[in-house]
Structures are given as structure tokens and as C-alpha cells.
Amino acid sequence: MNSTKPASSPGGFRWLQLAIGIVCMAMIANLQYGWTLFVDPIDAKFHWGRPAIQLAFTIFVMTETWLVPVEAWFVDKYGPRIVIMFGGLMIGLAWVMNSYASSLVTLYAAAIVAGIGAGAVYGTCVGNALKWFPDRRGLAAGATAAGFGAGAALTVVPIANMIAASGYQSTFLTFGIGQGLIVILLAWFVRPPHGVEAPRKKRLNLPQSAIDYTPPQVLRTPIFWVMYLVFVMVASGGLMTAAQIGPIAHDFKIADTPVTLAGFQMAALTFAISLDRVFDGFGRPLFGWVSDNIGREHTMFIAFATAALMLLTLSTYGHVPVVFVLATAIYFGVFGEIYSLFPATSGDTFGAKYATTNNGMLYTAKGTAALLVPLASIISSQLGWQAVFIVAVALNATAALTALLLIKPMRRAFILGSEATASAAIARAKVFPDDASVSYDRLEKAP
């Protein structure tokens, strides 16, 4: 299970690559986490209704995730730089379209453009981090994903203030152009590592495959689909909360209620969104680092169980402003770890060579989960937000148990069984070098 080959020393350059990826991710964060601030202003101007407007959010997430494997193919063929530049152009264009949108058709078209751009940036940056840090996959994926989770933290208040002062259309235009230009500029400095670096032995305390599985091979493994299902269960609650936190606060009649914490005072909704982004951003690298030390599945169980507890708290006491702010902050602090743990788990299970594409396929689970976001609006209109929260609680609790009782033994059995087969094939290749049924070059990395 442990490689004895010493790792090459890439010096500080790989940390520079990680930093660039984090900033690029921060520039696309508001496409998802800042969206909730625009929902009610758009509805106030055009009266399209929340479900119709939130469909744009669903379209964005679906486009962002389901096209990542395609965008990953372009990364493998043309390199990360051109793909990230393309993504920066698309996200800037999407926000400009939103600023001029006077029909739902235009709003939905902008969501498609935004999804294409965000997926290009997201998939490329996470995949590049996994390749540069095979010895710290959890931390690297978590830090990169933290850019997406916390990127909105510094801009939530300015966006909210600008919407109040200048209107949401001017806000879309200004922030869209600025964020797009920053991504395009940083893309010039992105490059992949020269070959896949070997993990350092002292870091390999976890089950890790020594075989690089191609995307078609990955799709034929049961463990991939179990991971996919758990990803969907957890992501659905987080996406619903991120997209609907504004409407939820307004329906609870606490959105503008002042809340004072640690000497800071803000309206409950603004405070909640700002604190959510901070906790989300901090939680992703933290849980990634924790998973590097105690295991992916144990970390999943802790995070998913905590998420279920916080959603249960919101369903019961969410109408209390300070509880709303703190419970949502803790919830997002543990929710965002799916974007660090699942890429790291994918890299551990299926290898680093095709990490960008394999993780991209797993990431499409987020798009599948996004289909439930409009459903949350419908359920809340009929049964109230408490019913929505209870469904999310059940999904997170089930995911926690599945990670520990199903994913952990399945993944270990998959890695051990595959490497035993590979070792036998290598031994046969050495004894019978002319046997055409054995591809030694393909298996030579196995221990």
C-alpha cells in the first residue's frame, strides 16, 4: 500500500500553483453563494416568482457540474491555462447577461453560460491541485475548494450594499467584469506538474491505489456509484440552503433583525451569509487535513452527522435570529467538506493520472443534487420550511452511516483486490515476458 519511491521536491512552486487556484476559485464563488442576494430583488422587479427564478440556479449548477468531465478532457489535451482563461471569459459574460436580463429565457441562458465558465475553472483548479499534491490530497483539494466556499465572504457585504444603493443590475455588471478579468489574468501563470510525483511514504497512512484507472474503468466500479449517491444526498441539502437562505430568512421574518456576535452587529441575513462563507472556507481545508490523518470515511461521518444536527436545529429554532446565524454557519462549516473529501477520496481510490476527469465525473453529483433545489421551494410553499429541513436531516444522517458502514469496507476491498491482481500480473509478466495478455508498462507502478 505504501510507495517506497522518494518524492521529487517541487519546492515552493506547487504552493504558488495552489494559491493561484484558490484565488481563481474565489472569483467564481459568487455565482453560487452570492446568488441568494439577487433572488428577491429580481422577483420584486419582474414578479416571476421564486421557483421560476431559482430554476436559473439549478440550471447553473447542472451545467457547471455535468460538463466538468468534458472540460477535463480539454485540460488533458490542451493544458489548464487555456481552459481557465475560457472560464474567466464565460463567467464575466454571464454576469453581464444577468444585468440586462428582462426575461426568464435570458436569465436561464446566462445561467448556462455561467455554469460552463464556473465548471471550467472549478474542475481544472481542483484537478491541478490533486496532481501537484499527491502526498496531501485532502489538504490541497480542501484549500482549493475553500476558495470557492469562502470566496464570497469578502464580497457578500459589498454586494448587498451595492444592490441596496445601485440596484442588482449594476451589481451584476460591475462584479462580473471584475471577477472575469482577474481569472483571465491568473490563468497565464497556471501549469500542470511535469509527470505525477510519487507520494511520500510517511504521508500514506490511508488506503491509496498504486494503479491509475481510466474514466471508463472507474464508471464500471460499484464503489464509484456508492460515492456518487452519498455525494448527491449531502449536496442536495447544502445547495438548497445556499440558494434559499435569503427566502428562508425572509419567511422566518428575521432577515433584517440586528444580530450582535463577538462585537459585530449586522442584519441576520447578511451576518449569516458572511459567517457561512467564513466557516465554509475554513472547514474545507480543515476537514481535508483531518481526513489525511484519520481517514476519509471517519471524517465524512463526523461532518455529515454534524450537518444533520444543525439542520434539525434550524427546523426547530431557526426563527430565532442568533440561532439562525450560528446554526447556518456551523452547517456550512461541515457541508463544504464534500468538496475536499470526495476529490481526495477519488484520487486515493482511482489514482492521480486521470484525477481531473475522474473527479469531474464524481463532481457531476452536485448537478444531480441541484435538481432538488426548485423542489424545496414547492415543498416549502405547501408544508413549510420545516418539512424541507427534515428531509435534508434524513439524507445527511443516511449519508453519515453509509460512509462508515459501506464506503469504507468497499473502498478498501477494491484497492486491495485490484493491487493483488496487478501484482500477480506483474509477476507473470516477469516470468513470461512474451505473454501478450500482460501489459507490464501499464502495471509497473503497482507495488
TrEMBL record:
Which residues belong to any copy of the Major facilitator superfamily (MFS) profile domain?
14-411
Q: Which organism is it from?
A: Bradyrhizobium elkanii
A Pfam family this chain is assigned to: MFS_1
Keywords (alphabetical) are:
Membrane, Transmembrane, Transmembrane helix
InterPro entries per record? MFS, MFS_dom, MFS_trans_sf, Oxa/Form_antiport, Proton-linked_MCT
Provide the transmembrane region boundaries. Answer: 12-33, 53-75, 82-101, 107-127, 139-160, 172-190, 223-246, 258-279, 300-317, 323-342, 387-407
Q: Which PROSITE patterns match?
A: MFS
- What is the protein's name according to its record? OFA family oxalate/formate antiporter-like MFS transporter
